[in-house]
Amino acid sequence: MNKERNICIVGLGLLGGSYAMGLTDAGYTVTAVDVRPEAIRYALEKGIIAAGAVEDFAPLLAGADAVVLGLYPHALVDWLRNNQKHLKPGALLTDVCGVKSGVVEEIQGFLRPDAEFIASHPMAGKEVSGVEHADCAIFKPANFIIVPTEKNTPRGLAFARGLAETLGFAHITQLTCAEHDKMIGYVSQLTHAIAVSLMNANDNTHLAEYTGDSFRDLTRIAKINENLWSELFFLNKENLIAEIDQFSASLEGLKRALVENDETELKRLFVQSTARRRLFDKKREAR
Fold first, then answer.
1. Fewer CB within 10 A of the terminal residue: the chain, N end or C end?
2. Are 119 and 102 in contact (CB under 8 A)?
3. Would the CATH topology of 6-175 be identical to that of 180-286?
4. pTM here?
């Protein structure tokens, strides 16, 4: 990406703030829009952004060559529909949304013809929110997914890849919207559903006094933003329900081995799980 590019971040949450931090550190001019005055104030004081606004942000959009939309899915669509008139001609836009169904097609359907929206998904995060917790180091081990459609241009795709490379993502790949949402239903949403269910399965009041690393690791993501994740789950509910059914069948198979005292089958499941995890680790280490 051209270092003279001016980039505006809309939504200074954890991801938006981390994008701003990483891009500023890389030498770009970064501005921001957020509903929280304290978020803008913090980002300015820490040198994460060069300028920011809560209201009267039209000049920031008009001066931005690229815009990163760090908003919840429904808010993103509504905000862009209402504010696209302020965009600079030729502006490139991308997002950080965890679901593309109901977002990408709608945006590309109403967006001005002189602007381009390239969907993307940084597979990174923490169990905290807000620019106050921004940390561009979260991108170093993470995957970055570009989700192109027939409406995207080589220029737009090059921008998305350049953004990921600048922020230091470990691996960059491309998926269609359908492929993305099916994959996310398994590797992200199902894992959150399991963690939430595990925490809600019984009264955990005193478990902190007895648990080890396994429970802590499995439930780390159960500390969850109910507003964001409700949106994500409902937008992708068909894929998520299918993944829950598949997981339930797998768990039922393990239970059946116990009920039937089938030691051979139980060990087979353990061996298969171990082999698949080793392959997973090997592929990550090879990147």
1. C
2. no
3. no
4. 0.90
Look up the CATH superfamily of 180-286. 6-phosphogluconate dehydrogenase C-terminal like domain (1.10.3660.10)
3-state secondary structure the chain: CCCCCEEEEECCCHHHHHHHHHHHHCCCEEEEECCCHHHHHHHHHCCCCCEEECCCCHHHHHCCCEEEECCCHHHHHHHHHHHHHHCCCCCEEEECCCCCCCCHHHHHHHCCCCCEEEEEEEECCCCCCCHHHCCHHHHCCCEEEEECCCCCCHHHHHHHHHHHHHHCCCEEEECCHHHHHHHHHHHHHHHHHHHHHHHHCCCCCCHHHCCCHHHHHHCHHHCCCHHHHHHHHHHCHHHHHHHHHHHHHHHHHHHHHHHCCCHHHHHHHHHHHHHHHHHHHHHHHHC
- Name the residue ranges covered by the structural domains of the chain: 6-175, 180-286
The pairing of strands 116-123 and 143-147 is: antiparallel
The tens digit of pLDDT for each residue in 13-24 reads 999 999 999 999
- List all residues 6 or more positions away from 188 whose beta carbon is below 8 Å from its beta carbon: 98, 123
Assigned superfamily of 6-175: NAD(P)-binding Rossmann-like Domain (3.40.50.720)
Model confidence over 107-135: pLDDT tens digits?
A: 999 999 999 999 999 999 887 889 999 99
pLDDT band at 140 (very low <50, low <70, confident <90, very high): very high
